[in-house]
Every structure is written in C-alpha cells, then in structure tokens.
Amino acid sequence: MRSGRDLSPVLLVGAGTGEATCGILYLASYLRRGGIEAFVRLYDGDETNAEVTRSFERLVARVRPKLVGISLKWFHHVDRALLIARTLRKIDPSIRIVVGGNSASYWWRELNAFDCIDHIVLGDGELPLLALCQGDPSPPNCVTRDPDGRPRRLPLAYVQGAKNTEDIYYSHFNELFLSQMDLHSFSGWVAPGKGCGENCLYCGGARGNQKAAFGRAKPFLRSEESVRRDHQEIASQTWQMRYDFAGSTAEFLSGTWAGVDLSNHCCTYFLWGVPRLGLIDALARTFKRVYMVLDIGCFSEQQRLEQMGRGLLKPCAKDSELLEIIDACRRHPNLDIEVSGIGGLPFASKATLAEELRLVERVIRLDCVVGYQRLESQPGALVTEHPARFDMVTEAKTFTEFLDYFERRKPGDVSVPMIRFRDAELEAEVQRNSDRVDAMAWEHRDARKRLDLQGRTRLKNTAPWTQQFTLGDWLGSHRAPAKFAQEPVTVVRSVDGITLPCTPSVSPRRFSDPTLVQGEDGAILLSALATFERPTTVASAVTQLGTKARLDPESAREVIDHLVDGRFLQPA
C-alpha cells in the first residue's frame, strides 16, 4: 500500500571502504524502475571518523535523501555501519536509516537496540526496500519498532528464487552514480544465482544461516534473460566481469552472454567447486583474459577428505583432479589460475601440515598463484559457535565481541578475529606452517610481477583505456570545489584495472584529494606514459624524461618502475 508520500530520493552506500558491496546496485536499479530516485555511493576511501563526517555532509547536501540504506553484508564492517548510521543521525535526524545484508540479517536483534537505525531488512531486499520507500506500513522482511520500542519482526514473505527474480537486474547505470570515479570503481560483478547448499564449518553464509536469514534452503540460478540484461547494461561501463557462484554452467553463461561482445573484457571467476572443462573453455573463448580462482577448501587432501566425509566441507577436488584442472587451464594462454585454501582447519596434524606444504610447492611449480589464509571467526559459522567440538578457541563469538574487536582496529588494519587450536604446541606448528606457506606464496606472486629492467629493455604503454573528464564529473559535484570543477582529469587504466587519475593543472597546495595524482606528479606520469606510446628502450625514455620532465636519471627510473609495477608499461 502506498502512502502517497514516497521516501525519495534514496541514497545507498556500503558499510566498508573501497567497493564494499555491489548488491546496492541491484537494489538501486530495482528502486529506479519502481519510481524511486535512487543513487549509490559505491567507492569509499574515508579512513578517519572526521573524513566520514565530511563525506556524508557533502553527500546529504547533494542528494537530500529521505532514506539512506546501508549495506552490511560483511561482518567485519559492523562498526563502520554503526559509525555511518550515527553520523547520518547527527547530520539530519529526519533521514530514515535502513540497514540490510547478510550480517545485518544475522545480527538484527543486536542492531535493533541502536536508536540510529530505523529499520532492518532481513534477507532479500529489493521488494522490502521499495515497500519502505513507498510508505507501506507493513513492509515484508522488515524489523520495525512498536510504540513501546520493542522490535517487531515481520515475516520473511519475500524470498527470491528461480521463478520470481525476472525483475531483478541491472538498469539505469547512467543515473545511479554520483561520480565517474564511483562508476569506474565498479568491479563488474554479476550474480548468476544466489544462495548456498553447503554447510562448510568455517562459513557464516552456509546453508543453515541462509535458511534462517533469507528463508532460502537451496541455491538457485536467476533467469537467463535477467542475467543477460545485466551484461547488456554494464558491458560498456566496465572492463571486466566478476562471478562468484558454483552452479553456473557453460551453457547457462553462454546464453547470458548472447548478443554481448565481451572479447575485449577480462573475467575473474571465483569457483566454489570443481569446474567442468566446458566452462573453462567457454570462459577462455569469450573473454580476452580470464583469472580463475579455484577453492579447494584446504591444501591437505587428507584433511579435506575427512571434513567432506563428516559433512563439514563442500565438495572439493582431490589433488589428482586439481592437477587435471590446472593442466586443462594451462592449454589456454589467456587464462591464469589461483588455487585457494584455508590453513588451520580442524583435524590438523604433522602429516596434514606436510601434505599442505607439498601441494603448495607443487602448485607454485606449475606457476599457479596460491591464495592462503588462516581460519577466521565468522559469525554463525559452526566452528565459531562450537569451537570446543574441534578442540579450538575463537577470538570472537558474540556480537559485542566482534564489535569490540573491530572498533579497536586502527585505520588501515584489516585483521579479523581468528580461530586457533587449544593445544599450544599444535597451534605453534600450524602457525609456523602458515608463515612458511605465506612466504612462498608471496615470493611467487612477486616473482611473477618482477621484470629485470635493463637499459636496452623495450617497453610499451599498454594501458587499454584513457579518458578525459572534468574534475567535477570525476569526483562528483559534492566532492570537487566549484572553482576547480572544470579542470581536466586524465584517467588511465592498466590491463589489471588499476586507474590513475592525473590532474596536472591542480596543485595539491590549492586543492588536495588522496585519490588524485596532482600537479607536477600528474604531469610527470602522463609524460612518462606518452614517452612509451611506441616501443622504447628504458635508456632512451630516461633521457627523454630528463629533457621533457627535467627528471634526473634515478627519478626517471623510479617513475618507470612505478608504471611497470602497475602494468601500465609492459615489455614490447
């Protein structure tokens, strides 16, 4: 039921730095099609509380939102979600503040105690958020408050599945973003489906929690047509496509790519299970470059099989299957592989630690990147809730413990609470193994990137994309001072998607923004890139930069090294 007084405009933001979540883009698209003027702030680089306040003062002044939605998908953003909500409440108490996402759904009782939050959306958010914006007094899936302040949880009446998601797709990308910087920070994430049918012991988003928070017992694929609409909407706006779903087949994805030219795009695919060879071939055939992440649970086959046998881990490849997959992938020169696993899982022993090292060493010898981390505490995960069952201890379990941990972190600290073995001797052995694997993995990553630059090495500017914007368009009118709004910004993107926004005409003494390369530094980088428009030796470029940019040889080499590291320059 509509009240006749829509809560519009609406501002949707993520609760973490960088691109905290792309789910807000599906929400904003849905709201736009429902008649609500929705905007997203996708990129967030604020580190201090003062920076958060300044950013939201500018955003509120520009958008004048009647409702702000905060996406709390990831548990390690809970302190930031509350900081944003408190900040908004101080700036304009009339703004309706709504939180949603996986972690908000899990912690709804605790979050409801904060008076800076008006509503909590549980589970799937499109229809509930639109109902809130339209003034529906009983929006589905929402936690509201009775007059006496007690929480009132409405039923999970809206549960997305294969048959009711035809109206969930990306749209209005030319209207949602508040800046070109926001738009060009979009990772290209597409959701072929939703949900999880597994109960991995370490995951807070496993089947049981999916059922409780989203009302969804089984994963599903969205309709082929709606996923095709995603690709059609974003193909011209992003340099890559990112996927994270186990159920997609080559046949399904090929149907969603139909009519969309992706031959110049990159693809990053996080696979939860063992890919079929047909999917590998389809990805390599469709995209210019593919980066495939294969999650094998852990690097010890013995440990992996024991957990699978106990129903504590999703189906994962045996070592022989993994090596067959790697061999199949290596037939495609445009496809790189990362093999990912967790260290310190239950049932570790000296034998499993030795197995772990052997497989890591073998994967590295095959020139595959290794992704590795120790077991972390995730709210609601079996091992977090019941660590004693596995003779382990957790650094956080309750909402208060997680919130206290994250509130104590200093800016830039990305650590999370961990789960460790109760046996001190075993814990020490696991940590030593972990440190060794980390060292090998990072040494290999560095070696893959390292170029032995000599004076006669020929390099070329391989940046596939360079565009000009005004400062006002790039940063957004809420962030760029009016007197500098028309100053030019040259934005260069590397083959890996790193963007380099250069503003030579704006000295940082006049106006400074941490996302820009300004003044003389910006001019030097653009001059260096121009020097390598055609294949050029390093020695010749050093000489030219000495003449054009008045750089001494050492400084010129530093600039060249910097651009090589970012893969703006590559061997000719």
TrEMBL record:
Q: Which GO terms describe its molecular function?
A: catalytic activity; cobalamin binding; iron-sulfur cluster binding; metal ion binding
- The B12-binding domain sits at 6-143
Query: Which UniProt keywords are listed?
Result: Iron, Iron-sulfur, Metal-binding, S-adenosyl-L-methionine
Q: Which PROSITE patterns does UniProt cross-reference here? A: B12_BINDING
Per the record, the domain of life is Bacteria
Say if the entry is tagged with keyword Metal-binding. Answer: yes
Query: What InterPro entries does the entry give?
Result: BchE-like, Cobalamin-bd, rSAM
Q: Which cofactor does it need?
A: [4Fe-4S] cluster
Which Gene3D superfamilies does the record cross-reference, listed alphabetically? Cobalamin-binding domain
What PANTHER family does the annotation carry?
ANAEROBIC MAGNESIUM-PROTOPORPHYRIN IX MONOMETHYL ESTER CYCLASE-RELATED, BLL1977 PROTEIN
* Stated name of the protein: Cobalamin-binding protein
Q: Which organism is it from?
A: Corallococcus llansteffanensis
